[in-house]
Specification:
By secondary structure, the chain is mainly beta. The chain has one domain: Immunoglobulin-like, CATH 2.60.40.790. Helix content is about 5%, strand content about 45%. It has one helix and eight strands; from the N terminus they run E-H-E-E-E-E-E-E-E. The protein has a four-stranded antiparallel beta sheet with strand order 1-6-5-4. Strand 2 and strand 3 form a beta hairpin. The N and C termini lie far apart (about 35 Å).
Length: about 120
């Protein structure tokens, strides 16, 4: 899996830092699943938006409450992009948010469903 991020930070250096490091992410491959852990304390469950678009899993977060914490530089929001492996069953993706960690579980298909095409040489 490939990971990238976009951020709504204001300064150039914050954007560069957040492009690669915020929030911290751990991707673990197990026998039957990929487990993505995003360490995003300070958000609420309804602050997250997780979508699949083309070959990417997109995780977005933005605080929806209008309080002083929203203006803290950590809670401005983020976007992370994960390139999906053809082995992932897109119908069996689950997510949960507990104790500041967003856990996303991606089930693997029983067989590789990558599109392979042979080209006939004439």
């Amino acid at each position: 899996m490939y990971c990238n991020s976009k951020s709504k930070r204001k300064t150039h250096w914050q954007q560069k830092f957040n492009q690669y490091f915020y929030p911290p992410v751990n991707v673990d491959e197990k026998d039957e699943v990929y487990q993505i852990s995003i360490f995003a304390a300070g958000y609420q469950k309804n602050d997250f938006d997780i979508q699949i678009e083309d070959d990417y899993l997109i995780v977005k977060a933005e605080t929806k409450e209008n309080d002083e914490l929203k203006h803290h530089h950590i809670l401005n929001g983020f976007e992370r992009y994960f390139k999906l492996n053809p082995k992932i069953n897109r119908e069996a993706i689950a997510a949960s948010y507990k104790n500041g960690v967003l856990e996303i579980t991606l089930q693997k298909n029983e067989r590789d469903v990558s599109k392979k095409t042979s080209i006939e040489i004439k």
